[in-house]
Design goal:
CATH topology of the largest domain: Rossmann fold
Number of strands: 8
Structural class: alpha/beta
Bound molecules: Double cubane cluster
Largest sheet: 4 strands, parallel
Radius of gyration: 21 Å
CATH architecture of the largest domain: 3-Layer(aba) Sandwich
Number of domains: 2
Strand order of the largest sheet: 2-1-3-4
Helix content: 40-55%
Distance between the termini: 47 Å
Order of helices and strands: HHHHEHEHHHEHEHHHHEHEHHHEHEH
């Protein structure tokens, strides 16, 4: 496949044959899942374009930015504060991957029973197919689950620019102090990388840009509370996925544009599914591009996903950073306050997450909750048991599903989802 970006990909060190295969799989999956949907808002055209250029124009923008002194920082977790990255004049991109790639190579360096998200990230590195990873000047890993924590020791042997952030696992004063100390260390690392001191004005601007991006997805989330829902869960998930790659200012504008259109739809009572269609909340592990299997199965069965309790969704975007502070110290404290609230399942205990799931189910008028965990993801698998039990005790129907990135269990998932939706009806 010839592409105007071929020389750029070659310079980044991609394996062009393998990369072509990945783009083909991505394109086919996108076509099958997204372009077959009926009645999509016209604002999704922008996101179609972003996806068609996800390894093209967007990478060119990043590469051009690097040439102008704007380094690229790659991250695997929503705990990496974009505000600090922007304040240093760099660009943050998400590196989590949602497709299996080079599995035989991956299983030479990681155990087979590692979650698909970690294996996928390694597959993209070993297969030399991810231009985001290859253009990153710094790759930030973080000590969250054991799988990630230990796999970064291996990743450190495969890349030369890994930075590992230690993260708390307990919501205590000591935990908060650790997060603050690690954000200070990260700020110093960013200053060293970019040669730019982070000052109050830069931090305020970084906070403003990222808050605006979050405000836009909050507006989208509010619109999904309507029945009929004006946008499919798949399209909303895609927007939440693009959140991690796109230029933040352009992304914010595009989300507001689609929200204007969705407001008109709501006013006209227009939805992507009939009023009264079963409304479902998805809760659990993050879904990185192109992990669309389960949402596709759910919506193909006639339900509508109205919210994602996930890091690619509301867990990752909930809450803004207070920008009122007038010193770097005040603003760093505000950043820590915001991020310390993230209720990832690696925290112990983690009662806030259950409260948020219940709250979201009510706010989004969900008839039921589908808990989603990747195979071998102990934090979310273990939490799925008390979460499902507590939801049922509160009168909210719930089901826990476990899967990976392969298509092998699609029929089995479909059967379980359909039975759950029948029960909701
Ligand atoms: S803040 S959820 S983005 S760590 S699926 S790799 S947990 S074994 S992704 Fe996450 Fe940050 Fe938490 Fe969010 Fe481990 Fe589970 Fe794999 Fe996971």
């Amino acid at each position: 496949m010839s592409s105007p970006y071929e020389s750029m990909w070659r310079e980044l060190g991609l394996d062009l044959t393998a990369h072509d295969q990945l783009l083909e799989v991505l394109g086919q999956g996108y076509q099958q899942v997204f372009l077959s949907q009926a009645d999509r808002p016209s604002g999704m055209e922008y996101f179609n374009f972003v996806m068609s250029e996800v390894h093209g124009l967007r990478i060119k923008e990043l590469v051009d930015g690097k040439a102008q002194g704007q380094p690229v920082i790659g991250s695997y977790c929503v705990f990496v504060p974009e505000e600090i990255v922007r304040a240093a004049g760099a660009t943050l991109v998400g590196l989590c991957s949602g497709a299996d790639f080079a599995p035989e190579e991956v299983e030479k360096v990681l155990p087979r029973n590692t979650c698909a998200l970690i294996k996928s990230s390694f597959g993209f590195k070993l297969g030399k197919v991810c231009p985001y990873l290859e253009s990153a000047d710094m790759i930030v890993g973080e000590n969250t689950c054991d799988g990630k924590k230990k796999s970064y020791e291996t990743l450190d042997r495969l890349v030369s620019n890994l930075y590992v952030m230690d993260l708390p696992q307990v919501k205590s004063a000591q935990g908060r102090a650790l997060l603050r100390a690690e954000y200070d260390r990260f700020k110093a690392a960013m200053e060293e990388l970019t040669g730019r001191a982070i000052d109050t004005a830069g931090l305020k601007e970084g906070i403003r840009i990222v808050n605006e991006k979050r405000r836009a997805v909050h507006r989208l989330a509010m619109l999904r509370r309507n029945d009929p829902a004006p946008i499919s869960g798949l399209d909303a998930l895609l927007i939440n996925q693009v959140f991690f790659y796109d230029d933040p200012v352009r992304f914010t504008e595009s989300v507001h544009k689609i929200c204007d259109e969705l407001e008109d739809r709501v006013a006209a009572g227009q939805g992507v599914a009939p009023k009264g269609a079963p409304r479902v909340l998805l809760s659990g592990c993050p879904m990185a591009v192109p992990n669309w299997k389960l949402p596709w199965i759910i919506e193909s069965a006639g339900a509508i996903i109205v919210g994602e309790e996930s890091c690619v969704g509301e867990r990752g975007t909930r809450n803004l950073v207070d920008s009122a502070g007038e010193t770097v110290e005040d603003l760093m404290e505000a950043i820590v306050d915001r991020y310390f609230d993230i209720d990832c399942a690696v925290f112990t205990p983690n009662p806030d997450r259950l409260d948020h799931i219940k709250q979201m189910a009510g706010d989004y008028r969900a008839k039921g909750v589908i808990h989603y965990a990747l195979q071998f993801c102990q934090p979310y698998q273990i939490e799925s048991i008390p979460v499902e039990k507590a939801l049922k005790e509160s009168g909210i129907p719930a089901i826990s599903l476990e899967t990976d990135y392969s298509a092998e269990d699609a029929e089995q998932l479909k059967t379980r989802v359909e039975a759950f939706l029948e029960m909701l009806a």
